[in-house]
Write a structure and sequence with these properties.
The complex is a heterodimer. Chain A is of the alpha+beta class. Chain A contains twelve helices and 18 strands. Chain B is built from 13 helices and 19 strands. Chain B has a seven-stranded mixed beta sheet. The radius of gyration of chain B is 28 Å and the shape is globular. Classes of the chains: A alpha+beta, B alpha+beta. At the A-B interface, helix 6 and helix 7 of A face helix 6 and helix 8 of B.
């Protein structure tokens, strides 16, 4: 254990005698924290990656971590170590303890995020500009400001918050490592060209973020850290279409493929599905009938549970192909010289729509050329979105990151079941309700009958029979759909 | 008959160094003439009389009311136009001298009240007087010496007719109007505007939105239909009328009402299109395309689409699922209320709760009842799946009833009777128009059974008319073939 004494500021509220107004003073104190010490074998290096893009000084640690979580420093790219399936990136060298503690406190590294509640605001050593004086104790404050009637300081909460934050840090080889999400390659067009840089799959902490992507519009196209050629290829393609150049900030020295769990195609498809839904929403009554129905199918497929399944892909393909036909017709019209459909400049909204539909084609192209064996198995997924019964909803788990997230929520590992599901022998079904995940069941077909071959719950015991029944029902009804389709095709002699 | 009318008019001027104009009142006088025709040249076509004392505030709403002595009003036809009895000519000059706004010339607003009233301070003046009053020269002045007002009065006089000492004013065809929302009141009203005025985006405003119309000659059919006395709630008949000459009763109320109700049905469905079940959305598109093809008429294709809509119910296989999906979506959306889905599952659940499908089906059913109460004098069955056509700004549609033919002939400046005769001898009649919708030029074309096309009417270049007429024949042909290709694949 490495012990540090971290100086910090905190607020204290008080009332003066015979007054009802609450006033506050700024207090100065320090917190004892312990950082875990691990050796090289316990925390092996899995990746050595870096991003040469450094937009601001490293003092503002929060900003750096948000914009460039894997910076290339004078010590080279950033090693990433793996402990219990979590990844930690190298941050600060451990030298003089006082200096290190000051560095942590002053740089904003200890900021408490939304995840931990806002009861305690950790200020580190950054003094609010309105406050001039700081005091070490109540007595000192009373001496300066007169007697107090009530006193309520936030010291205990500040201590708890900082200690909790420090649980996310490790010390290995004389360096402090900090918890990060999985490094991923991002391709993002901006004013200076198409930028290729390193990001996190899902940041472990962040203000107003629960670690998921709800409500966030993701404009970049992301790839796993082992897919640099593919990322550069896509960036080239985008740059050609936009008439700009590629700017590559990513430095990759070492990648352990077994530790890579991220693939961006699913996320991309989900994002274009959202964009396409928004695009079609106000204009449903003026779309061609086939496109309107495809929109309806897309909405049905994605609104039950927010995830990519075969139905989403199928609906997106239909919209994409219809859109290609529509574009051709417009060009033919122009060729005839008829009164202009495209003879005027595109308005802002139309440009936005065109962008949406262009990115739809790109996303489908990426989807068709993906290599995600073992990480994601949407192609073998059931042709169904969700099954509702009582207050339960059942849906299929179709990727490793999704299994990881559910596993984290339950505090269990789903790796074994996920590996079975990825091999295509069965289906991994999650059942949840308003109070949480009721259970995850691996359903497979044995001798023509559906059977539950494995279950995982948060409490470790077998889930109730009702939950298993819903999981089996979900698989059975989806299978019926498939059989219907087969029968229909046979009728046509295909 | 000659009349002298003294009137007020507006003098506009902008004083020196001022920005806004000011208005003064000038005075003028003009002489107008009202035609006098014998009762043989202006035969009675209708006799109408709405009962007095019902509330209606439109400008033309009371021209078909009973006379103050309780008698019915005559509607006479003269040179193809209709004129309704307005007031007695006796003492007209005296009434005009006393207050022109209280006479038949009221629409011109030829007199300003309270002028020269000492309590009010407004006076009749002249531009010279204004110039004298102002210390500086005027920046600008606009004084036409009352020419515009005199013109307006002359135009009004040209719309009037004196027959046997009674003044008649121009009117459009009186038709029976029946409210369907508020107590099924039936009364005689001016016919709605002909639809070629707004062929592209036909909109019905105000009271007319919630009403059904039928020409007086066939009004009985509408009154006795399931929409009228057959509905269980008897019609509140607030009028008496008599059709003396049925040649002047031509308005195609069926096409107007069916179209109107179809537009309303489509409106109900589009306003919650995101929440509709799949079959309903599919039907919505069928109705939309049929309505675009109908372009103001009632075609078999439109009726079929309405029949499909009328079969919709809100019964889905699993209504509980809608609620659960909406609840699950709501949980997932948490604090991100700006989320893209805007609650698609929630919208579906709401559309189910509100019974949007049932509402649309009800309105579609009304349209079908209206269709079934039609007089049956048209040729609607002739229209194939594609009976209208557009190319650039040019539009072309087949005319399917005598009422439509008369309207189109008026628009094209053609005498309707030979065209009507051609239609009843088996020829197909087309209306062709070109130009922006508010100022289109119209023409009529006829087509023989063997496809020979003859344009009638001179308001459009002949080659343009021929081009569009061949276009519609081609479109009808391809629609025949594609109708089978495009059978739904389910």
């Amino acid at each position: 254990m490495t012990r540090l004494t971290i100086p910090t500021l905190y607020n204290a509220d008080f009332k003066r005698p015979k007054k009802r107004t609450v006033e506050s003073v700024l207090m100065q104190g320090s917190v004892e924290v312990q950082l875990r010490d691990l050796d090289d074998a316990e925390a092996p290096v899995v990746h050595i990656v870096g991003d040469t893009y450094q937009p601001m000084t490293s003092d503002m640690y929060t900003e750096v971590r948000r914009h460039n979580p894997f910076p290339v420093t004078k010590n080279g790219p950033c090693p990433v170590r793996s402990v219990d399936g979590k990844l930690y990136a190298r941050r600060w060298q451990l030298g003089d303890p006082d200096r290190t503690a000051h560095l942590l406190a002053a740089g904003g590294a200890l900021d408490v995020h939304y995840r931990d509640g806002q009861g305690a605001t950790v200020m580190g050593l950054r003094k609010p500009s309105s406050e001039r004086e700081t005091y070490a104790s109540r007595a000192e404050a009373e001496a300066a400001r007169g007697p107090f009637r009530e006193w309520d300081d936030q010291y205990a909460r500040t201590v708890a918050a900082i200690q909790r934050r420090c649980e996310d840090m490790l010390v290995v080889d004389g360096w402090i490592y900090d918890l990060v999400g999985e490094p991923v390659l991002s391709v993002q067009p901006d004013d200076n060209g198409v930028r290729v840089f390193l990001g996190q799959a899902s940041p472990p902490v962040g203000p107003y973020r629960h670690g998921n992507d709800h409500g966030k519009t993701n404009v970049s196209i992301r790839f796993g850290i082992d897919q640099l050629p593919r990322a550069l290829d896509t960036a080239e393609r985008l740059a050609r279409a936009m008439g700009t150049k590629v700017v590559n900030h990513a430095v990759i020295e070492l990648v352990s493929p077994w530790a890579v769990r991220f693939r961006g195609e699913r996320e991309r498809i989900r994002q274009v599905a959202i964009d396409t839904l928004t695009w079609g929403k106000g204009r449903l009554s003026s779309l061609p009938a086939a496109a309107g129905l495809a929109w309806h199918d897309l909405a049905s497929a994605i609104s039950d549970v927010d995830q990519v399944n075969p139905r989403v892909i199928e609906a997106l393909r239909r919209i994409d192909s219809l859109r290609r036909v529509a574009d051709e017709e417009i060009e033919r019209f122009d060729g005839d010289g008829h009164a202009g459909i495209r003879n005027y400049e595109l308005s802002e909204r139309e440009r936005q729509d065109k962008l949406t539909l262009d990115s739809l084609s790109l996303a489908l192209d990426l989807w068709d050329t993906r290599e995600n064996r073992g990480i994601e198995w949407v192609d073998g997924g059931l042709n169904a979105s969700a099954t509702f019964e009582g207050d339960y909803v059942a849906y299929e788990i179709l990727s490793l990151p999704q299994a990881d997230r559910l596993g984290q929520r339950m505090g269990r590992s789903l790796d074994d079941l996920a590996a079975d599901a990825a091999s295509g022998k069965g289906h991994l079904i999650a059942v949840e309700n308003a109070s949480g995940i009721a259970g995850v069941a691996y359903v497979s077909r044995c001798d023509g009958d559906l059977e539950v071959l494995g279950t995982v719950t948060s409490h470790g015991s077998k889930p109730p029979q009702a939950v298993l029944d819903i999981a089996v029902r979900h698989v059975r009804e989806a299978a019926v759909h498939v059989n219907d389709m087969d029968a229909a095709l046979e009728d046509f002699g295909i | 008959m000659k009349l002298r009318i003294a009137f007020h008019y507006a003098i506009k001027y902008v004083p020196f160094r001022c920005f806004n104009d000011r208005t003064a009142i000038g005075a003028g006088e003009t002489e107008v003439e009202i035609r006098e025709v014998s009762s043989r040249d202006a035969q009675v076509a209708f006799r109408v009389g709405n009962h007095n004392g019902f509330d209606s505030y439109g400008a033309n709403d009371h021209i078909f009311d009973r006379k103050p002595d309780g008698g019915m009003r005559d509607v006479r036809a003269h040179e193809g136009r209709l004129y309704v009895e307005a007031e007695n000519v006796e003492g007209l000059q005296g009434r005009i001298d006393a207050d022109v706004n209280g006479t038949i010339f009221a629409p011109c607003k030829a007199r300003v009240d309270l002028v020269n009233d000492p309590r009010h301070g407004r006076k009749v003046t002249t531009l010279e007087a204004i110039r004298r009053e102002q210390r500086e020269p005027l920046k600008s002045a606009d004084d036409d010496k009352g020419a515009a007002m005199a013109d307006s009065l002359r135009k009004r006089a040209s719309q009037l007719l004196i027959v046997d000492g009674v003044i008649y004013q121009r009117c459009v065809e009186p038709v029976l109007k029946m409210d369907i929302q508020y107590g099924r009141r039936a009364y005689v009203a001016p016919r709605p505007k002909p639809d070629h005025i707004g062929w592209d985006h036909r909109e019905v405003w105000g009271d007319d939105r919630d009403a059904l119309f039928e020409k007086l000659a066939d009004a009985r059919l509408l009154l006795d239909s399931p929409l009228g006395n057959g509905s269980g709630e008897p019609v509140d008949m607030r009028t008496t009328f008599e059709v003396v000459d049925p040649r002047y009763s031509v308005f195609d109320g069926t096409a107007h009402d069916v179209n109107n109700l179809a537009i309303r049905t489509l409106g109900i469905m589009t306003s919650s299109a995101e929440g509709l079940p799949r079959e309903a959305l599919d039907t919505m598109y069928v109705l939309r395309d049929a309505l675009a093809d109908a372009s103001g008429r009632a075609t078999p294709r439109l009726i079929n689409a309405l029949r499909e809509v009328s079969l919709l119910t809100r019964d889905v296989s699993d209504p509980q699922r809608l609620k659960l999906a909406a609840a699950a979506e709501n949980r997932r959306r948490s604090i991100y209320t700006h989320d893209y889905r805007g609650g698609i599952a929630a919208q579906r659940a709401k559309a189910y709760e509100d019974d949007v499908c049932g509402e649309a089906a009800g309105t579609a059913m009304e349209a079908i009842h209206r269709w079934e109460a039609r007089p049956g004098s048209g040729w609607e069955d002739r229209a194939g799946p594609a009976s209208s056509h557009r190319k650039g700004t040019g539009r072309c549609r087949e005319l399917l009833s005598p009422g439509q033919i008369v309207d189109a002939c008026h628009a094209a400046g053609v005498d309707p009777s030979p065209v009507l005769a051609a239609a009843s001898s088996g020829k197909r009649i087309y209306q062709v128009s070109d130009g922006p919708s508010h100022a289109s030029a119209h023409a009529i074309g006829t087509m023989d059974a063997d496809g020979t096309v003859v344009p009638v009417g001179k308001r459009l270049p002949e080659d343009r008319v021929m081009d569009l007429l061949h276009g519609i024949a081609e479109a009808a042909d391809t629609a025949m073939h594609t109708a089978y290709d495009m059978m739904p694949m389910r």
